[in-house]
Amino acid sequence: MASSAIPAYGTLLKRETTPGSGVYANVAEVRSMTGPSMKGDIIDVTTHSSAASGAWREKISSLLDPGEITFAINLVPASSGHKAFLADFTGRVKTKFKFVFPDVGLTEWLFEGYVTNFGMKAETDGVLEADVTVTLTGAPTFPA
């Protein structure tokens, strides 16, 4: 059977321009993206009565954590979009983001979070870069 793999090239990261506006702009100069790094907490509920089940531990699923997204950009210090990340960081602003995938339907994943890391790099033999981390909060929205 032939693979249904989709090349990652062309995936867009978008940021809501003004909180609550529903208007998103592409984040410029994105080199790579990772995340969201979602995980679920598991609680051990084993009791002394669990021995009746053959002495196996019993566990239940608890809270879900949307995790983080991280991305690397070619930093353009005068870019209003790049300045917005610093404003989000210093202002502790919860911001909406979305990934738009390069599949046939341009599938979107929506999430919101806080910029918790903005690390600039300026290596002698390179370009200005920044690594940005957004710590997500609440439930992401995925298409059904």
Give descriptors for this structure:
mainly beta; 144 residues; two-stranded antiparallel ribbon
Summarize the structure.
This protein is mainly β and 144 residues long. The chain has one helix at residues 80-91, and strands spanning 12-16, 24-26, 30-34, 39-44, 59-65, 68-74, 94-100, 108-122, 128-141. Strand 1 and strand 2 form a beta hairpin.
How would you explain this protein's 3D organization?
- By secondary structure, this protein is mostly beta strands.
- Helix content is 8%, strand content 48%.
- The protein contains 1 helix and 9 strands.
- The protein has one helix at residues 80-91; strands at 12-16, 24-26, 30-34, 39-44, 59-65, 68-74, 94-100, 108-122, 128-141.
- The protein has a 7-stranded antiparallel β-sheet with strand order 2-1-7-8-9-6-3.
- The longest helix has 12 residues, at 80-91.
- It is elongated.
- It starts with 11 loop residues before the first strand and ends with a strand.
- The model has no long low-confidence stretch (mean pLDDT 94).
Draw up the topology in text:
Layout: E1 12-16, E2 24-26, E3 30-34, E4 39-44, E5 59-65, E6 68-74, H1 80-91, E7 94-100, E8 108-122, E9 128-141
Antiparallel strand pairs: 1-2, 1-7, 3-6, 4-5, 6-9, 7-8, 8-9
What amount of the residues lies in strands? over 45%
Report how far the terminal alpha carbons are from each other.
25 Å
Q: Helix share of residues?
A: under 10%
Q: Which consecutive residue ranges, at least 5 long each, have pLDDT under 50?
A: none
How are the strands of the largest sheet arranged?
A: 2-1-7-8-9-6-3
Q: Helix/strand-derived class?
A: mainly beta
Helix and strand run = EEEEEEHEEE
In this structure, how is the largest beta sheet organized?
A: 7 strands, antiparallel
Round the mean pLDDT to the nearest integer and report it.
Answer: 94
> Can you count the helices?
1
Question: What is Rg?
Answer: 20 Å
